[in-house]
Structures are given as structure tokens and as C-alpha cells.
Amino acid sequence: MSDSTTVRLEAFSDGVFAIAITLLVLEIKVPSASDLSQVSGLWHALAERWPSYVGFVASFFIVGVMWANHHALFEYIRRVDRRMLLANLFLLMGVSFLPYPTAVLAQNLANPATRTDATVFYGVTLVFTALTYNVVWWLGRYGQARLEPHVHETGLRMITRRYNMTLLGSLVATGFAFVNIWLSLVMHLSLYVLSARSEPLKERD
Amino acid sequence: MSDSTTVRLEAFSDGVFAIAITLLVLEIKVPSASDLSQVSGLWHALAERWPSYVGFVASFFIVGVMWANHHALFEYIRRVDRRMLLANLFLLMGVSFLPYPTAVLAQNLANPATRTDATVFYGVTLVFTALTYNVVWWLGRYGQARLEPHVHETGLRMITRRYNMTLLGSLVATGFAFVNIWLSLVMHLSLYVLSARSEPLKERD
Amino acid sequence: MSDSTTVRLEAFSDGVFAIAITLLVLEIKVPSASDLSQVSGLWHALAERWPSYVGFVASFFIVGVMWANHHALFEYIRRVDRRMLLANLFLLMGVSFLPYPTAVLAQNLANPATRTDATVFYGVTLVFTALTYNVVWWLGRYGQARLEPHVHETGLRMITRRYNMTLLGSLVATGFAFVNIWLSLVMHLSLYVLSARSEPLKERD
Amino acid sequence: MSDSTTVRLEAFSDGVFAIAITLLVLEIKVPSASDLSQVSGLWHALAERWPSYVGFVASFFIVGVMWANHHALFEYIRRVDRRMLLANLFLLMGVSFLPYPTAVLAQNLANPATRTDATVFYGVTLVFTALTYNVVWWLGRYGQARLEPHVHETGLRMITRRYNMTLLGSLVATGFAFVNIWLSLVMHLSLYVLSARSEPLKERD
After folding, report:
1. Is C189's pLDDT higher than 90?
2. Best exposed site among A127, D51, D170, D172 by fewest CB in 10 Å?
3. Confidence at C106, pLDDT banded by 50, 70, 90
4. Does residue D39 form part of some domain?
5. Which residue of A has its CA nearest to B105?
């Protein structure tokens, strides 16, 4: 049903999502022998890595939901043109950049002097990614790329609204980092929890 | 026969399994020039890395069997809903986290003061992963997601029992780390050897 | 329509492209605590990493367009023989080597004494990759590997010309590094912007 | 034509091959500022990395041909059972371990005191991998796993002979490391050049 072009675009995108999500673990540093000598036992050394675990779980969840949304988005798209390939490339650039702000966040989450900036940096990346989803969807809906037939106008409007909400919400959550970083991070996560719940996958037979 | 949704979920999961299993090698550190100067020759320096090889082989084998089990599980599942996507995401989170406890284990296996804790940490990750397999399977059997038709009740019960056994066995093996870490590791591996042998792949024509 | 051989070659190539493009982020170093103590705040430390971001964005874009071109190229090829498998292997070697010259470029871009050499090194890799695209295409057009039927001679000539242009352009852009490195880098990027725009994807029904 | 089981096994294996081959570049270290201060210019610093390039090119070529051979092997196999899944897992273990002996080789190739040992270590990994190919093929030919129909006995014998030759040749090449490491490495590479040339891909319509 899908064009072969879409198939390979999805395969490539799946690859990038799968790699970006699995690379996240590389940012969690193993306690070294000298780390161990400074604390009482391995559990303390592992517990001190808590900002890394927070970063890992948050980004893993967010990239996972982004993947599911990407998947759902391309259920509606029948053909892609060069312009959409490029827009999708910027989307993937945001996704595969995410391990970096995640590592910056983990490195600074326990440091009151820098954690606000690190959370803003993390948030800006999520704003960028949300923006690219809107561009890809906009090109799918109004551009040369064609949608699958038999798609209801209601469904299209719902998706448009959802992508707009995620973009707006990411901006607001990023701004709240200046108030409280935990509030900001919970807001970012909530957007993806909501987004994961709101849209049932289109069923096919 | 499978839904297109299942196809892309399986492709994404395959990607995560394949990357997690291949990243394991990055945790084995190459002997540096200064390492070499402290021991008599390269073979000694390589031999001193034995905990890394133990960790690599154990985790490679476990992730490989997990992949085969994931594969077998989704042979029975016809459609996935959002809830199963999320459960599968937590399953993949456990799988892609495994290189970290593997590295912690390798780093501490030769250290009597910390190796018990490292083995427990490794075991807890395996308990978590076993738990997620049970949740995914439970959602497949009783949730909204639908199974493939023509599946015998006997087969379903056998799989349920197997996943329960792996979860229970992982808990017991993790507890045995306090008695003897080698016993604990052998028990973990045995669970996956048994699991790899017990279930014949469903044949299709 | 495509041979199963081409399918698996494309899947393997997609994997290598997807991994090479996602590994680029690993070359961006997280500011350490000691980096932070030397500058005023996290933003300064992050801003000092600008050569890494330039390298990341440039190489991400170039590898992404290379992927799209590889995709387009194999739309025309019906069967592959061993010779083409080997030529494609050298192509992938160039692609997966690219994170290294990217890191070298990022490391030296702010250093007037070495940045010309780093840009030439980066350019030479792009020349090598452009060369391998020409070889693969040449083997597809004149070798044992067979093209898809119904391909117009005009289309073939256009592709040949485009690959020749990219090779020639990469050589010229590499040479311009001795005049001005920014000019050289902009020329390299322009070649891939042009290449991304010039060829519409072959549509199939 | 292929069983769905084979399809996912091949996809997973392709993933591991693609990742192992792309991870090779991570072992090439970027010259640091202090490296640069010790030699006259970037080119010298890059040239000093020659053992890394030798390792990268050799292992990239070898893993690439291994992938093509794996591909060709599974063209003949119609169904896989659990035993073959396990044998294939050990094959993939060898493949994904290869970046480690490659890095060890690169680290020691310029050091007369340790390079023989490093070459033997590299060779032993190739012997192990060649062994696993023989086991997988043996299980395909005589085990429960079934071959594709319409396969000529002559073709089967040719493949058996080729896998035997690669195993024997790897053993001999590894032994020659004690005489001359370059001879040993050229012999290893030659085996894969020959292997890449000898077998035409089975054509399908």
C-alpha cells in the first residue's frame, strides 16, 4: 500500500531512531576505581549517577514516543518528494542530536549553578524537534507529497492540532526551566505521555 | 499475515537489540602503553581483561536469546495498540540499558569488595527485563492487542509459564549473588539456555 | 520489482548510513567540570564547542543527501553482482569513515595553524566518496549488473553528469581549502544541496 | 520464498554486521592538541595514525565480505531452527567482537615487541568466525533446518569446500604471524578477496 520510497525512508528513519535511543546508555559513565575509593561502596557510587539515569529514562521515553509518532505520521503519507526527505532529515538531525543535550543535562543536573541552562538547552532541542514534526506534517498535508487516500478530514485536523500543541507545550516547558527545572522536565515528559496516549494507531486490514 | 504495525515495531525492536548487542564490545578497553609496561607482554595485559570477556559473552548470549524470544513472542501477536507500544518501549529500555550493568560487572568482577553489589545490579536489570516480557505478553493475551488466530490454548499456557519461570528464576538468581556470584551468573545464563531450548519456533507455510 | 539481492544490499547500506549519521553526535564532547571553571557559565562552555556543531550539521546533511542519492541510484539497478557489492563496500567505507575527518575538522577549525589541513583531509574523504558513487553507477550502467527496464537514456545521462559534477566539484572545493576554508566548506555543502534538489525521485505505481 | 523466520534472522544479522562495521571508525583516535605540539603539523599527526587506518580498512573489508557471505549462505537456507539461531548468535558474537582485536592490532602494529601477539589475537578471532560459518552451514546442510529446494549438490559441495578452505587458511595465516605479521595480514585479506570473488550470487527471478 505504501510507496517503496516511503518504505525505505521509514527504514532509514527507524534505524536512526533505534541507534539514537540505544546510544543514550553510552553517556552513563561506569564508576572508576578512584570514584569507588571516595565513597562507601559501589551502591553509593552508582547512586551518585542519578542524574544520568534521569536523563537516560527521560530521553529514552521521549525518543520512543517520537518514534511511535513518526510511525503514525507516515501511516498517512503515501509518497514523499525531495522536500519532505530534507524536512525528515532535519527531524532526524534533532533526534540524533538528543544524546548530547541529555549528557549535558545529566552532567549538570546536580549543579545548582548550571542546571537551569542545561535544562533550557535540553528544551530547545525538543522545541527544534517538535518544529520539524510540524514541517514534515505540513508538507504531507499541503505539499507535493501525497497522503494516503480515504483519510478523514477530522483525523487530519486532530493530528495538526496535536503537533501544534506539542510545539507550543515544548516552548512553554522550556520557559518554565527558569522557574523550576523539575517542573520543566515533568512538563516535557507529560507532553509525550499525552501524545503517546491521544492517538490510536490507524488500523489496517 | 502480520499487521504492518507489527512489522515496523519488530523492525525498530530488532534495531535496538542489534545495536545493544553490538555496543557491548565498546566496553572492553584496549590495553594502553602504560598497561603494557606494568605486565610482561600483551597476552598478560589481554588476560587481565578477563572480566570484560565474561561480561561480553554473558550479555551477548542473554541479549541474543532475548531477541529470539521477542521474535517468537511477536509471532503470536497480530496487532499492537499504544499500550503495548509503551510496554515494548520499557522492554527495550531494559535491553539497551544492559551494556551499563555489564560494564559495571566487568569493572568489579575481580574486586572482592564490590563484586557482590555489581552482580546484584546486573541481576536487577535482568529481573526488570523479565518483568517487561511478562507485561508485553500479558497485554498480548488479555489486552486490546489481538493474537494471531489459530493459536492453541496449550501453546499460550506454555509461554505464560515460561515467562513466569524466567521472572521467578531471575529473582532467585539475583538473590544468590549474596551467596556466590559465580553461582548467580551461571543461574542467570542457565535460564536463557533453557529458554532458548524450550520453545520450538512456530512454523509457517 | 527489485531483486531480493538488491533488497538486502539496500538494507545493509541503509544500516551503515543510519549508524554513521547517528554516530556523529558522539564526537561532540560534553563540557567537563574543569571546562566550566575556566569560562563564565555553561552557555559559554557550550558556545566554545561551535566547531563541533558546524561539523555535526555539515556531515549530517552530507551523509543524509548521500543516503538519498544511494537510494535513488538503486532505484535504477535491478540486480547486483559481486563486483558491485565490492564497489558498494568501498562507498560505505567512505561514508562510515566520515565521522573521523569530521572530528578532526571540529578539533582544528578554531586553530589557524591546522585548520587548512583539516579541511583538506575532510575534502579528500568527500572526493573518495564521490569517486565510489561514480564507480558504482558505472558498474550499474556498463557492467554485469543490470538496470531496471524502461529507463530512459536521457535519465541515465543526467545521472552520469550529476555524479561527474559532484566528483569534479569536490576536487575543486578541496583545492579551495588552501584559499579559504569557509569557502571550501560552503562549496562542499552546496554540491549536496544542488544534488538533493536536482533529481526528482523516480515515481512508481 | 524465504520463511518469515529467516527474514527476521537476516534482518537482525544485517543490523549486527552494519553496526560492527560502522563502529570500527570509533577506534581511530583524533589527534589531540598535545599530540599536535609534539609533531610538525596535522599531517604528521594524522600520518602517525597509520596503524589505525590499516586496521580500519582490513576489518572493514573483512566484515563486508563476511556480510556478503552470510547473505549468500542464507539464500540457500529455507527455515531455521533454534539450534541454528544459536550457531548464528556465536557467528555474530565473533563479528561484533572484531572491533576489539582490530583496536588491539592498531595500538600495537608499530611496536615490534607486541605486534606479533596482537596479530595472533586478531587471527584467532578470524579463526573463530570461520569456524562458526562452518557450523551454521553444517547445520543448514545436515541439521533440522531445511535448505531451499532446487539446490544442486555441486553448489552445496562448492560452498562446503570454500568454508573449509577459509577456516584452514585462517589457521595457517594466524600461524604465519610468528614468521612475519605483514605476510599474515595479507594472507587473511587474500582469503576474503578470494571468497568474495569465487561465488556468484544465486540469481532469482
Report:
1. yes
2. D172
3. very high
4. yes
5. A30
Question: Residue A2 pLDDT > 50, yes or no?
Answer: no
The mean per-residue pLDDT over the stretch B107-131 comes to 95
For chains A and C, what is the number of CB pairs under 8 angstroms? Answer: 97
Q: Which residues contact A164 (CB under 8 A, 6 or more apart)?
A: A134
**How far, in Å, CA of B46 to CA of B50, rounded?**
7
Question: How many domains does one find in chain D?
Answer: 1
Look up residue D65 and give its three cell numbers: 565480505
H helices of A24-114, where? Answer: 33-38, 42-47, 50-75, 82-97, 99-108
A82 CB neighbour count, 10 Å cutoff = 18
Residue D77 DSSP label? B
Residues of B with CB under 8 A from a CB of A: 3-5, 8, 11-12, 15-16, 18-20, 23, 26-27, 79-82, 85-86, 89, 92-93, 96-97, 99-100, 103-104, 107-108, 113-114, 117-118, 121
What tens digit of pLDDT does each residue of A105-143 get? Answer: 999 999 999 999 999 999 999 999 999 999 999 988 887
CB contact under 8 A, A19 and C22: yes
Q: What is the ipTM of this complex?
A: 0.87
Q: What is the mean pLDDT of chain D?
A: 86
A5 versus B24: the higher-pLDDT residue is B24
> What are the Cα distances from residue B158, in Å, to B134, B161, B173, C126?
13, 5, 22, 55
Q: Angle, to 10 degrees, between the axis of helix C50-75 and the axis of helix C181-198? A: 30
Q: Kindly report the pTM of this predicted structure.
A: 0.90
Residues of B in contact with A17 (CB under 8 A): 12, 15
Residues of C with CB under 8 A from a CB of A: 1-2, 10-11, 14-15, 17-19, 21-26, 28, 30-32, 36, 41-43, 46, 56-57, 60-61, 64-65, 67-68, 71, 196-197, 199-201, 203-204
Residue B202 lies in a domain: no
Structural domain contains residue C205: no
> Would the CB atoms of C81 and D21 count as touching at under 8 Å?
no
Cell digits of residue B1: 499475515
> CA D91 to CA D162: how far, in whole Å?
17
Range scoring the smallest mean pLDDT among A49-63, B22-36, D174-188: B22-36
Residues D20-55: tens digit of each pLDDT:
999 999 989 998 877 777 777 899 899 989 999 999
pLDDT for the residue C198 = 61
Contacting residues for D142 by C-beta, under 8 A, at least 6 apart: none
Q: Do C108 and D57 touch (CB under 8 A)?
A: no
- Residue A42 to residue B5, Cβ atoms within 8 A: no
Does a structural domain hold residue B205?
no
Check A42 against B93: CB less than 8 A apart: no
Query: Can you list the alpha helix ranges (DSSP code H) found in C28-146?
Result: 33-38, 42-47, 50-75, 82-97, 99-108, 115-142
Chain mean position to CA B185: 13
Please tell me which of the candidates C1, C41, C56 has its beta carbon nearest to residue A117: C41
Strand, helix or coil at A147?
strand
* Residues of chain B neighbouring D27 (CB-CB closer than 8 A): 30
Over chain A, what is the mean pLDDT? 86
**Phi and psi at residue D77, in whole multiples of 5°?**
-100, 130
- A107, A54 contact by CB (below 8 A): no
**Residue C205 above 50 pLDDT?**
no
Candidates C20, C27, C117; nearest CB to D42: C117
Average confidence (pLDDT) over D129-157: 81
List, for residues C70-91, the tens digit of each pLDDT value.
988 888 887 788 788 889 999 9
Residues 6 or more apart from C106 whose CB is under 8 A from it? C27, C28, C51, C52, C54, C55, C56
Using the beta-carbon criterion (under 8 Å), do D12 and B28 form an inter-chain contact?
Answer: no
What domain range is B46 assigned to? 4-196
